[in-house]
Amino acid sequence: MSNRKRSVAMILAGGQGSRLGVLTRLRAKPAVPYGGKYRIIDFPLSNCANSGIDVVGVLTQYEPFVLNSYIGNGAPWDLNTSTGGAYLLSPHTRVGDVGSWYAGTADAIYQNIQFIDRFDPQYVVVLSGDHIYKMDYSQMIAFHEENGADATIAVMPVPIEEASRFGILATDEAGRVTDFVEKPADPPSNLASMGIYVFDWAKVRRYLEDDAADAFSSHDFGKNVIPAMLGGGERLFAFRFEGYWRDVGTIDSLWEANMDLLEEGGDLDLSDNRWTIYSRNPDLPAARIGTGAILGGSMIAEGCDVEGSVLHSMLFQGVSVGSRAQIVDSLVMAGAKVGAGTDIQRAVIAEDVIIGEDCIIGRAGADLAVIGPGAVIESGVVIAPGESVEPNAVVSVEA
């Protein structure tokens, strides 16, 4: 077949991300902003482009509009080629089908078997769309080939107290998986699946069909397909990843992952031109820093206009900060406006928020305050630590 590809990547990007609260009320988790100029989905897309995988299916479901608009034809990630591309794949129906949402991670791939078959790949790389990391998938594919594997799972050790959140593996000395249990209450080890898989397509295709026919299945890779392959005697191997990787599934973890970028010599280097993280960026002028501004330990994206103080914080694109305002240990996302005299500490301010003058938002050493996209905080309002404001809400002193 003339359009045959050695590898096709499928990014699972339909997650609701409910633990991110007001930040994901109106968009899928992979569309959440990160790092001043990126969205979370930029990382798997850029990893695919840098790894030489040019056919990428992006499986969307929950609130897909923002994500679909952002990805477009894949041009920012060099995925708009004549022989490849970024394809947005939502749940769909066929003749005689009642149709349904993706019932699980395995069902999402199963529903797109026809799409994958168009490219007749030898390997399918299944990825999560909501993790922050840099990985060369070609190295994982090479490891898969060297071991004659049917499935390869990227793994890394995690703190044992967090292991119950992950699929946990046991391996022999050669790295072959001998046991796998999804999110165990009492984890037998701390070797965790990262939700990154390489499969022989012909092999896993049969398991996906069997799983789809099982009315009692959760149709999930970790709960069903991986254990079925292991029980069927297939060759499963663990590919140990060494590097920065974060599952930004909560407000705190998202804030921490952004704060990591402010540390000198941090583990995630976004300035490394050998492995660029690409994104879709608006055309904005350079940031303007006023004569009275005070900056320290912060990242300021293009288009910002700063008159106040910004300390150990991150301003995304197009943010304005009025005179006498102070922002400390906080994230202020694209297009937000912070009025004069406002004090923001340990807060996450989403896109296009308008904050009036002399407000107090959050407090040092306390739980994060979170303001949802498009909210308006009128002058003089106090937002307590741990408080969240819904998207597009208007908060006044009287309220």
UniProtKB/TrEMBL annotation:
<dbReference type="InterPro" id="IPR005836">
    <property type="entry name" value="ADP_Glu_pyroP_CS"/>
</dbReference>
<feature type="site" description="Could play a key role in the communication between the regulatory and the substrate sites">
    <location>
        <position position="101"/>
    </location>
</feature>
<keyword id="KW-0320">Glycogen biosynthesis</keyword>
<comment type="pathway">
    <text>Glycan biosynthesis; glycogen biosynthesis.</text>
</comment>
<dbReference type="GO" id="GO:0005978">
    <property type="term" value="P:glycogen biosynthetic process"/>
</dbReference>
<keyword id="KW-0548">Nucleotidyltransferase</keyword>
<dbReference type="InterPro" id="IPR011831">
    <property type="entry name" value="ADP-Glc_PPase"/>
</dbReference>
<comment type="similarity">
    <text>Belongs to the bacterial/plant glucose-1-phosphate adenylyltransferase family.</text>
</comment>
<protein>
    <recommendedName>
        <fullName>Glucose-1-phosphate adenylyltransferase</fullName>
        <ecNumber>2.7.7.27</ecNumber>
    </recommendedName>
</protein>
<keyword id="KW-0547">Nucleotide-binding</keyword>
<feature type="domain" description="Nucleotidyl transferase">
    <location>
        <begin position="9"/>
        <end position="263"/>
    </location>
</feature>
<feature type="binding site">
    <location>
        <begin position="182"/>
        <end position="183"/>
    </location>
    <ligand>
        <name>alpha-D-glucose 1-phosphate</name>
    </ligand>
</feature>
<keyword id="KW-0808">Transferase</keyword>
<dbReference type="Pfam" id="PF24894">
    <property type="entry name" value="Hexapep_GlmU"/>
</dbReference>
<dbReference type="GO" id="GO:0005524">
    <property type="term" value="F:ATP binding"/>
</dbReference>
<feature type="binding site">
    <location>
        <position position="102"/>
    </location>
    <ligand>
        <name>alpha-D-glucose 1-phosphate</name>
    </ligand>
</feature>
<keyword id="KW-0119">Carbohydrate metabolism</keyword>
<comment type="subunit">
    <text>Homotetramer.</text>
</comment>
<dbReference type="InterPro" id="IPR023049">
    <property type="entry name" value="GlgC_bac"/>
</dbReference>
<keyword id="KW-0321">Glycogen metabolism</keyword>
<feature type="binding site">
    <location>
        <position position="167"/>
    </location>
    <ligand>
        <name>alpha-D-glucose 1-phosphate</name>
    </ligand>
</feature>
<comment type="function">
    <text>Involved in the biosynthesis of ADP-glucose, a building block required for the elongation reactions to produce glycogen. Catalyzes the reaction between ATP and alpha-D-glucose 1-phosphate (G1P) to produce pyrophosphate and ADP-Glc.</text>
</comment>
<dbReference type="InterPro" id="IPR029044">
    <property type="entry name" value="Nucleotide-diphossugar_trans"/>
</dbReference>
<feature type="binding site">
    <location>
        <position position="193"/>
    </location>
    <ligand>
        <name>alpha-D-glucose 1-phosphate</name>
    </ligand>
</feature>
<keyword id="KW-0067">ATP-binding</keyword>
<dbReference type="InterPro" id="IPR056818">
    <property type="entry name" value="GlmU/GlgC-like_hexapep"/>
</dbReference>
<dbReference type="InterPro" id="IPR005835">
    <property type="entry name" value="NTP_transferase_dom"/>
</dbReference>
<feature type="site" description="Could play a key role in the communication between the regulatory and the substrate sites">
    <location>
        <position position="61"/>
    </location>
</feature>
<dbReference type="GO" id="GO:0008878">
    <property type="term" value="F:glucose-1-phosphate adenylyltransferase activity"/>
</dbReference>
<dbReference type="Pfam" id="PF00483">
    <property type="entry name" value="NTP_transferase"/>
</dbReference>
<dbReference type="InterPro" id="IPR011004">
    <property type="entry name" value="Trimer_LpxA-like_sf"/>
</dbReference>
<feature type="domain" description="Glucose-1-phosphate adenylyltransferase/Bifunctional protein GlmU-like C-terminal hexapeptide">
    <location>
        <begin position="297"/>
        <end position="364"/>
    </location>
</feature>
